[in-house]
Amino acid sequence: MRKKIVAGNWKMNNDLGQTEALLSKLLKKMPETETEVMVAPAFTNLRMAFDTLIQSPVEVIAQNMHFAENGAYTGEISADMLKSVGIQTVILGHSERRAYFNETDETLAKKVDTALEHDMTVMFCFGEELEDRKGDNHFKVVESQLEKALFHLKAAAWKNIILAYEPVWAIGTGETATPEQAQEMHKFIRKTVAEKYSDKVADGVSILYGGSVKPQNAKEIFSQPDVDGGLIGGASLKAKDFVAIVEAI
Ligand code: PEP
């Protein structure tokens, strides 16, 4: 059985004190669940968050990392740095990294390789823009993103890959893909992985949906057979909403 996962991407929000306050609310409200729950605070708060959640089932994950081992990359963070503060999972390829920091599928392939070489798990984000969907190119775009960034991997590496399909037009916009649109794309993604690798690899990989998931729409989206959970932005900043989304699975 593949894992159900709900992850909160806190982006560039919350200083140290605000992060402590949010973590403390989460700790109080988090139900016992089989779902894997993850939160991604800013780099400066990772160590404190890791220490705070060490006894809880909630995993602290990172929002990004560089592909190089170390060196003259001002402002960047390496896999070893993340691991040294307890981080095992990293989000790569978020659409905001692609749009504002020029991350391409080629750069992302290198980041994926580095993370896997360090025995980390990668939560790989991808998804089409509005023009792609309007032009009926969304399946082609998604297939190409997977091919360029992930399909060089050996089948065995996929045990450390989580996919997060995030249509760019639905991120932070309040516009959610309908449950049918999410299912249609997730099914396509699973078929694409099965054709490249095997049914075993495709059936084992968790595919999360991300894009304006809220307590009000989470249940319907998560009830789709190929949707294995969600990557949550805005709604993960409120403990009550995030917990409600975790409970919706
Ligand atoms: C995200 O940034 O990954 C995301 C899904 O954001 P939101 O839930 O705010 O649309």
Characterise the protein shown here:
The chain has 249 residues and is an alpha/beta fold. It is 43% helix and 14% strand. The chain has helices spanning 16-29, 46-53, 79-84, 95-100, 105-117, 130-134, 138-150, 179-196, 199-204, 215-222, 239-247, and strands at residues 5-9, 36-40, 59-60, 89-92, 121-126, 161-165, 207-210, 229-232. An eight-stranded parallel beta sheet has the order 3-2-1-8-7-6-5-4. Helix 1 links the parallel strand 1 (5-9) and strand 2 (36-40). Helix 1 (16-29) runs parallel beside helix 2 and helix 1 (16-29) runs parallel beside helix 11. The two termini are 15 Å apart. The model has no long low-confidence stretch (mean pLDDT 97). The chain binds phosphoenolpyruvate.
The gross shape turns out to be globular
Number of continuous helical runs = 11
- Tell me the number of strands: 8
Largest sheet, in brief, is: 8 strands, parallel
Helix/strand class: alpha/beta
Distance between the termini: 15 Å
Cofactors and ligands: phosphoenolpyruvate
User: Helix coverage percent of residues?
Assistant: 40-55%
Q: State Rg.
A: 17 Å
Strand content is: 5-15%
- Write out the strand line-up for the largest beta sheet, numbering strands in chain order: 3-2-1-8-7-6-5-4
The low-pLDDT segments are: none
pLDDT averaged over residues: 97
Give, in order, the helices and strands.
EHEHEHEHHEHHEHHEHEH
